[in-house]
Amino acid sequence: MGQVALVTGGNRGIGLATAQRLRDGGYTVVVGSRSGEAPDGLDAVRLDVSDPASIEAGFAEIEERFGPVLVLVANAGITRDGLLMRMSDEDIDDVLATNLAGSIRLARRALKGMIRARSGRIVFVSSVVGMLGSGGQVNYAASKAGLIGAARSLAREVGSRGITVNVLAPGFVETDMTAVLDDAQRSAILGQIPLARYAQSAEIADSVAFLVGAGYVTGAVLPIDGGLGMGH
């Protein structure tokens, strides 16, 4: 078996495409999801990234069944959109707990095996919104921007151990989340994207695979957004 790769939120969209891409690249891929379901023949564990106990249990199960996690793709995320003046404390806390604190805790737990192996790859999945901003998404943008600071700080901490930490910043992608947009919304978004189209999940997965395979890239933020956020 190849190195063990954990992809959170890997049961659909970007996460599923990433899990399939890494599996095809020879990794032993485990999908972490709240349901614990394994799509498309992939192995899976039940893992709620907003719950520290669930993270510990998920890693313990992976280590017992497959070995230490040497590749972590922290992809799981949620949105709770709305104008800040009307946003509830729960909407703020849930998004930060899942998208930001959850990713940090995943990385902390993964470091146990990576430091022993003196090798590891951590990829945080952020968003163009984290750098560009988006009205109605203060909580989400803050959580995604925070991943950049977390990744660059961690990259400085663990680089000498052979561990890289990078950030992927996708733009708009053809997923279930964007499928709910109406024609007017889609047209307005496409008008801002120089490539005039949404990304495909497979294109994001290829970029994750690049970062996983890149031994001399760390602390980087890789935008995959069709030019939407250029200059940020």
Mind explaining what this structure looks like?
- The protein is α/β, with parallel strands linked by helices.
- It has a single domain (about 5-225), classed as Rossmann fold, CATH 3.40.50.
- Helices cover about 45% and strands about 15% of the residues.
- The protein has 8 helices and 7 strands.
- A 7-stranded parallel beta sheet has the order 3-2-1-4-5-6-7, with helices on both faces.
- α1 (about 15-25) links the parallel β1 (about 5-10) and β2.
- α1 crosses α8 (about 200-215), α2 packs parallel to α3 (about 90-115) and α3 runs parallel beside α5 (about 140-160).
- The longest helix is centred in the middle third of the chain and has 29 residues, at about 90-115.
- The protein is globular.
- The mean pLDDT is about 95.
Brief sketch in words of this structure:
The protein is of the alpha/beta class and 232 residues long.
CATH architecture: 3-Layer(aba) Sandwich
Question: Beta fraction of the residues?
Answer: 15-25%
Low-confidence stretches: none
Q: CATH class, please?
A: Alpha Beta
Structural class: alpha/beta
CATH topology: Rossmann fold
What is the mean pLDDT?
Answer: 93
Q: By CATH's scheme, which homologous superfamily applies?
A: NAD(P)-binding Rossmann-like Domain
Q: Report the strand count.
A: 7
Q: Biggest sheet, strands in spatial order?
A: 3-2-1-4-5-6-7
How would you describe the shape?
globular
* Strand/helix succession: EHEEHEHEHHEHHHE
Provide the helix percentage.
40-55%
Count of discrete alpha- or pi-helical segments spanning 4 or more residues: 8
> Distance N terminus to C terminus?
40 Å
Q: State Rg.
A: 17 Å
Q: Biggest β-sheet: count, sense, barrel?
A: 7 strands, parallel
Q: What is the domain tally? A: 1
